[in-house]
Amino acid sequence: MGPVSTPSAPLADLVDLDHAATTRVRPEVLEAMAPFLGDRYGNPSGSHRLARDAVRAVDEARERIAEVLGCAPGEVVFSSGGTESDNHAVSGGMPPRPGVPVCSAAEHHAVLDPVEALGGRVVPVGRDGRVDLDALAATLSVLATTVSVVSVMLANNETGVLNDLDAVARVVHAVEPEVPKVAVHTDAVQAAAWMDLRSAAASADLVSVSGHKLGGPKGIGALVVRRNTPLAPLVRGGGQERGRRSGTSNVAGIVGLAAALDATDRDRDATNQRIGALRDRLADGLLAAVPDAIETAAPDGDRSGLLPGICHLCIDGVDSETLLFLLESEGVLASAASSCSSGAQQSSHVLAAMGVAESAARGSLRLSLGWDSTEADVDAALHAVPTAVRRVREFG
Ligand code: PLP
After folding, report:
1. What pTM, to 2 d.p., does this model score?
2. Angle subtended at Cα 109 by Cα 211 and Cα 105, rounded to the nearest 5 degrees
3. Which of 169, 222, 185, 192 is nearest to 61 (CA)?
4. What is the Cα–Cα distance from 273 to 283, expressed in whole angstroms?
5. Rounded distance from Cα 210 to ligand 1 centre (Å)
C-alpha cells in the first residue's frame, strides 16, 4: 500500500443507508475548504498577512455558525467534534465543575462515559425513548446542591427519538431556588442535520454539534457555551478560542463546518420534507413486507416525535450481524446502531433503557438517510431487506 490507502472494492455503487454514522461532504463544503488546504494555509494565531487571512476566514465562519445555531459568535467554541464537545460540556473542563453530572440513559457514550467517570447519575427513559421527566425531577431534588450539569440529547442517534428540551429545562430550573444555576447541556450532534437549533436548542446553556453528520468534514465540531455558563478549558495550551480550547485552529474544518451548516439551514425545509417522505415509504414498505418487524420508536405508527432521516426496526428471530452482512453483500450499507469503535456488535444500551426485549433488540436494524439520499436508495432497501430477512430466517 502506498502513502494513501486505496479501496479494496469499488465504493461508488454502494447504497448508503448509514448516514447517522457519517455523511458525504457536500460539494459546496469541499469548494469552500479547498483554498484553506492550499495557498490560504495560515495559522490564525500569527500576526502577518497569511495569519490575518486565516483570522478573517475563521471570524466569518464563526459568525455564520453562530447565526445558524442561534447564539452570539463569542459563544461558539470550536472542537475536534461531537465527542470532545460532549466531554467538555459534561465535565465543565479541567478541573471538572464541582458537583455531579446527570444525564439520560439513552445518551451517546460521548456523554454517558464522562458522566459515569465523574460519578454522575443516569436517569431512565420511557418505552418511547424520551427522558423520564418525573425521574429527572426526583434525581435532581435528591442530589439538590451537588448537580453540576444535566445533559439530555435533542435527538437519539440510534432511534431518532426527540426530547423536549424546553420541558427538561423547566424541570431543571424548578429545583434552582434550592440550587445554584444548573447548566443544561444538549448533544445536538444528530439533531443539527435536521432541526433548527435556534429554537430547538434555545433552552440549553451548552450545545454540541459535529461537522461530519451534516455534510461537513470529520474532525471539526463546536460547543455553544452561552454567556454566564461556567466552563474551564478541557484542552489547555496556546489559549486559542479565548482560552476555552487550545490548539491551532482547524481553519479548513471551521470553514467547512460553516459551509455545511449554511447549506443545511438553507435546504432544511425541503430536505426534511423530501427525506421524511422517503423514510415513511421505507418504513411502511418494510413493515408490510417483513413479518414480525416493529418500528422501535413508533410502534403505533406515529413518527411525529422522530428525526425524519432514521428508520429503526426490531425484527424478531433475526440476528443483526448476519442481516447486515447479507445486506452488504447486496451493496446496501446499514447499521444495528450498536457497534463499538472496533466495529463489533454489542447490545444496545439505548434499546435496553427503553425496555425493548433482548430477543427483539438482537434483530435491530437502523436505516438512516441523509441530505443526498434518493428514491433509488429506498427502492434498493425495500428489495434487499425482506430478501435478506427471509434468508436469515430460512438458514439461520
Ligand atoms: N453524539 C451523538 C448523538 C452521535 O451520534 C455521535 C456520533 O456518532 C457523537 C456524539 C460523536 O460525534 P463525533 O463523531 O463527531 O465525535
Report:
1. 0.96
2. 120
3. 222
4. 15
5. 7
Tell me, using a 6 A CB cutoff, whether residue 210 lines ligand 1: yes
Question: How far is it, in rounded angstroms, from Cα 280 to Cα 275?
Answer: 8
> Is-catalytic flag, 71?
no
Q: What burial letters (b/e) apply to 187-203, b meaning 16+ CB within 10 Å?
A: bbbbbbbbbbbeebbeb
Residue nearest to atom 5 of ligand 1 (CA): 157
Characterize the bridge pairing of strands 183-187 and 310-315.
unpaired
Q: For residue 167, count CB atoms less than 10 angstroms from its CB and return exposed for 0-12, middle for 13-18, buried for 19 or more.
A: middle
Which single residue is written with the C-alpha cell 424478531?
316
pLDDT digits (tens, 9 = 90+) for 171-210: 999 987 666 679 999 999 999 999 999 999 999 999 999 9
pLDDT digits (tens, 9 = 90+) for 342-371: 555 678 999 999 999 998 999 999 999 999
Q: Provide the strand spans (E) within 117-171.
A: 121-123, 147-151
Distance separating alpha carbons of residues 44 and 66, to the nearest angstrom: 19
Question: Rounded to 5 degrees, what angle do the CA atoms 119, 156, 285 make?
Answer: 150
Q: Best substitution site from 80, 88, 189 to test ligand 1's pocket, by max atoms within 8 Å of Cβ?
A: 189
Closest residue CA from atom 14 of ligand 1: 82
Do residues 205 and 15 touch, judged by C-beta distance below 8 A? no
Grid coordinates standing for 30? 469541499
Give Cα 121 distance to the centre of its chain. 21
In this structure, the strands spanning 310-315 and 364-368 are antiparallel
- How many angstroms separate the alpha carbon of residue 192 from the centre of ligand 1? 11
Tallying the residues shown for the chain, one arrives at 396
**Cell numbers describing residue 367:** 436505516
